[in-house]
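BUG: 3D viewer hangs when loading the predicted structure for this chain

Environment: internal workstation, default settings.
Expected: structure renders.
Actual: progress bar stalls at 90%.

Input used:
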Amino acid sequence: MKAAHRSSDVKNRWLISSCRTNEAARLAADLGCSHLLAQCLINRNLGEPQTASTFLNPKLKELTDPFDLPDMDRAVERLWQARQRGELIVVFGDYDVDGVTATAIILEVLRPLGWRVEAYLPNRLEEGYGLTREAAENCHRRYGARLILAVDCGSGAHDTIAWLHDNGVDVIVLDHHQITTPPPRAAAVVNPQLRQSKSARNNGLCSAGLSFKLAHALLKRAREQREPWARIVDLRTTLDLVALGTIADLAPVVGENRILVTTGLEKLNRTNRPGLRALRKVAQINGTIGPYEVGFQIGPRLNAVGRLETATDALELLMTSDLEQADSLAQSLDKRNRERQQIERVILADVIKTVNSTFNPNADYVIVQGNPEWHVGVVGIVASRIQQEFHRPTIIFGGDGPLLRGSGRSIDGFDLAHALRNCSELLVRHGGHAMAAGVTIQPENLPRLRKRLNELAHACLQPKHLVPVLTLEAEVPLSALTLDQVLELEKLHPCGPGNPVVQFAVCGLKLSRQPQPIGRDQQHLKLWVTDGTNTVEAVWWSWEGQQMPSGTFDLACVPMINRYNGRCAVQLKLLDWRPSGVRRAAGTE
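Structure tokens produced before the viewer hung:
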């Protein structure tokens, strides 16, 4: 179902980065690269030759000392103490891909080294999100452990951690979510968002990356003390899991994350894990696994069970060494993902119908909708879809017993977590960061929350902020996008938040032949564009009958390499188009 006021009905704002010719020329000379690659590096604030070189050649040896992270020394000391005492440790993990991979990394490293470790993954529907009191009580009853390692959660769980402390349980928090109050009184809070982190390069680490750093810190301490077991585990074998968690959690692919994702994807593409090999098979991934395959094919299947129930099957899939069990679990996860997709489609159609009946683009700067019948496990995905469709901050609520539990997604310029803090008297609980947040509310407070958030949005957003922005690296001639040039631009891979896919404006083009609808439902469009001398194939995904380019036009596009049957050719992914010569008059630059 299509929305009546889709963001695609409004022309994108094209923001073309200024061409810093002299700086790009110097950097290109220092690096021995093209001016175009140098310009892209400068656009990423990588104009210093050494910094740019490190970015283009990420190496594990460039990782910072794990003890630079706040409280890492305290976490290692308490874990060391647990090993010496033979204490049972429970890893309390979140149910998304980041939480599950982080949990798997810790189990995979600590168990062979002599720690007694079990895992507890809460049931999303019955126990809620994070280190809740109910989940902590259930965990304590099951294991009776004296030490809990809370992974991908816990930074705001003051009351639960206090209750655990009163019951003789220490808690180590290993988390990356924003801390808006003083940290909880835990044995250690390893969170790069705390100000005492010594290196900005590790600020973007997600929980999978933090688990890797914790394991690194433990092994470093063991080697310093010449422990004979210190070399039993090769941490590099966990990098495939680190990459999975980092990409799926949309962590910035810069700093240490770039190193971990680059090396992790190499491991992932040749992984021997039966579970990941089986998951690759059911996802029908035949080529190289990159950020797209993780984000849209592997990640959703690992996430599906946690969204609908508990992520235990996802954890078992990652850790099993049994081929038959791996195949069975992969099939089960694939089935659950299809169920999740069906639930999502029904709710999305319902939300769009509801929004369209009342939506006023001039007044509604924030979309807030809720229904106790909507499944709380998929409201985050639906919120993302609505945010993309309408280009508005969006919170979608589903039923959670007598309450409504929601998930929000925002746009640049509107800090959702900060806005919710300004509505705290209306909320049961809330947390998150600028671009995404979770919130629980009494149903009767939903209209007041919608009104308050819109008041806050009107105070900080202008109409231009509600138009999608296409940030483009440069305006380039079609002749510049040669095969060699586009291959060189792949040195910027892997891309993701903080290191976006390169996008260019190519102006003064015409169609060289009639466009051709492609795809099973003819929903995509293949075009051939020319500057009069050069002709390049372009693909417009999900075209679905929108107005096609005509006359002389400009393209916003991503240059890609189409690899087929051992042959390579440049292909443009079309993002937007506009008639040539109108861009400055339209105020789109």
